[in-house]
Write a structure and sequence with these properties.
The protein is built from 17 helices and eight strands. By secondary structure, the protein is mainly α.
Length: 414
């Protein structure tokens, strides 16, 4: 912004260079702090009617009256442009004012527009297998939530990315947690997506200041729930007779299958017979890339999941689609599992993901090395597997059996 942001407008005429034209073209000169630029306004006037002192036409024809009205409109438009520049503390000079008047100034980049542009790259990543569909849908959902937030709090559909402030980020976080009932880790994911978009804008020089500076988002370690006395509780579930309720029978069998394989719901739903191999010794193995991460899970099939798989080999849905189990939707599965838990008198809430956690717990309790569990669960980082390493009292008791046998007979002199 110049030291002296005040401006003046001067209208004047020039004789056309072409022969045969008697009217003079009308120009406007914008002057700011000694700088000036001229602009043709697309009008002409009879030089005899031009009042050089008053800077308008003194004629009384309709054409002259329309010209004077247009000159007033130009003055009003330049005053509006100047006022906006001063209020927003932006550069005030004749070139900027002229370009704004002509509409040549580049439209500011909008936040949701950039987010959508960035998401196009996310879609490409998903299509080439670098990102799973569920993650891509979260990116899309974040844009939707941003739009809802701005309509609710600002009454606009979008804002320039340069107008994003730390206060707005705080308000958006509050919106996610309160209006959208997002848990901490979910809210943190969306805020990190927004931060990634802001970094994208900074890299393209659409914004110079990072509103995320000094802000850190911490994920809470999720508490993994599992069947604590898994062998007993699984047996209680298997004892239930669902011959007259096929929907509960399928839900029970799917849950137990996952308890003995560690497959997540999306993986068991897409598990096909082509993902199961038999080695030279007759052992069956599940070799399947996880839907979430693409990491290969290598899981030996125990007798229980083998029997369950054979049970549904001729099921019409399994035959037509090639899947091992004709699994229903996750929402229905969790609803059916709630009924099963009530019938089996299991107090903890059964969900499809508890089966995966139970598999990890069973493996740890039976002294399966953490590295092997990592391979079966398809974790790319063993730190993820270590989250499941909540060793139960029974495991500690068994591990201490050798020391107990050796030292429990010692007597202490009193």
């Amino acid at each position: 912004m110049t030291n002296n942001p005040y401006f003046t407008l001067t209208f004047f005429t020039r004789k056309p260079r072409s022969e045969g034209y008697t009217d003079h073209k009308v120009y406007v000169r914008i002057s700011v702090a000694g700088q000036q630029t001229d602009l043709a306004i697309g009008r002409s006037v009879n030089p005899e009617n031009w009042d050089q002192k008053r800077k308008l036409s003194k004629g009384r024809s309709r054409r002259d009256l329309e010209l004077n009205k247009y000159l007033d409109e130009i003055r009003a438009r330049f005053c509006e442009i100047h006022t906006n520049l001063v209020r927003e503390k932006k550069l005030v000079n004749p070139i900027v004012m002229r370009d704004l008047f002509l509409g040549k100034v580049e439209k500011p980049k909008m936040l949701c527009e950039i987010f959508t542009e960035s998401n196009a790259k996310r879609k490409e990543e998903m299509e080439r297998g670098d990102m799973v569909n569920a993650t891509y849908l979260r990116w899309e959902r974040c844009v939707t939530y941003l739009g809802e937030f701005m309509r609710l709090t600002m009454n606009v559909d979008d804002i320039p990315v340069r107008d994003v402030t730390a206060g707005m980020i705080d308000d958006f976080e509050h919106f996610l947690r309160v209006s959208k009932n997002c848990a901490n880790n979910t809210a943190v994911k969306y805020l990190r997506y927004l931060k990634n978009t802001i970094q994208y804008a900074i890299a393209h020089k659409w914004i110079t200041e990072d509103p995320f500076i000094g802000r850190k988002f911490h994920r809470t370690q999720a508490k993994r729930q599992f069947l604590t006395v898994a062998e007993t509780e699984i047996m209680e579930i298997l004892k239930l007779d669902f011959s007259m309720m096929p929907r509960l029978e399928l839900a029970r069998d799917t849950f137990v299958f996952c308890c003995f394989t560690g497959l997540a719901f999306c993986d068991i739903k897409s598990l096909q017979w082509s993902d199961i191999e038999k080695d030279r010794d007759g052992n069956m193995w599940i070799r399947k890339s996880r839907e979430k991460t693409g990491e290969l899970s290598i899981i030996p099939m125990l007798e229980v999941p083998r029997q369950i798989a054979d049970k549904y080999v001729n099921h019409p849905v399994a035959v037509s689609t090639g899947v091992v189990l004709p699994v229903c939707s996750n929402q229905k599965m969790n609803a059916y599992l709630k009924e099963i838990a009530d019938l089996a008198k299991i107090t903890k809430p059964l969900t499809t993901h508890i089966a995966r956690h139970t598999f990890a717990s069973l493996s740890l309790n039976n002294h399966v090395p953490l590295e092997s569990i990592q391979k079966m669960l398809g974790h790319s980082d063993i730190k993820t597997t270590q989250i499941y390493a909540k060793i139960q009292d029974q495991t500690v008791y068994e591990d201490m059996q050798t020391m107990r046998n050796r030292f429990d007979r010692l007597c202490i002199n009193r």
